[in-house]
Design goal:
This protein is mostly beta strands. The protein is about 10% helix and about 45% strand. The protein contains one helix and eleven strands. Strand 9 and strand 10 form a beta hairpin.
């Protein structure tokens, strides 16, 4: 009888540690990593950034994108609110594009961000201020975003 009591107590303790959510296999880690970095630039009032996708897996990775925009920057102000560049967002062609990365291979997309109040074709224009930039991977399977990087436009 004592043994049955101990068994019931052990079962109750184990059950108490279980969560109420459904459990299942952990989704596999993404085979790529997205980072954003600031690059040197010689344009006054501008900042040059690169969004980089690294294949961190041991095999080739095939990425498929629903548009010509494979990676995009996203911006937020000091309060964390999303900021749209002057003149609107990004113009992407509605064509399916693909990118294949061998193990250890990277892809990098540069963006130049400039302070201003009117759109300019070759720049992402934002009003002067303090921002963070994140790089977003627009793959159909992996929806990844880089860590934020703070910067100031004057």
């Amino acid at each position: 009888m004592r043994r049955l009591g101990r068994l019931a107590l052990a079962a109750a303790m184990l059950a108490g540690g279980c969560g109420t959510g459904a459990t299942g296999p952990t989704p596999p880690a993404a085979p790529v990593r997205v980072t954003v970095s600031r690059l040197p630039t010689f344009v006054a009032g501008a900042a040059l950034f690169a969004i980089r996708i690294d294949n961190i897996s041991g095999s080739a990775v095939n990425l498929t994108f629903p548009s010509s925009c494979q990676v995009l920057p996203s911006f937020s102000d000091r309060a964390g609110r999303a900021v749209t560049p002057v003149g609107g967002g990004f113009a992407c062609l509605t064509v399916i594009t693909e990118l294949s990365l061998l193990p250890g291979v990277s892809f990098m997309q540069p963006f130049t961000v400039k302070a201003g109040s009117t759109p300019e074709a070759q720049f992402v224009v934002l009003p002067p201020g303090e921002y963070t930039i994140r790089g977003r991977l627009e793959d159909t399977v992996y929806k990844l975003e880089s860590a934020p990087l703070a910067f100031t436009l004057q």
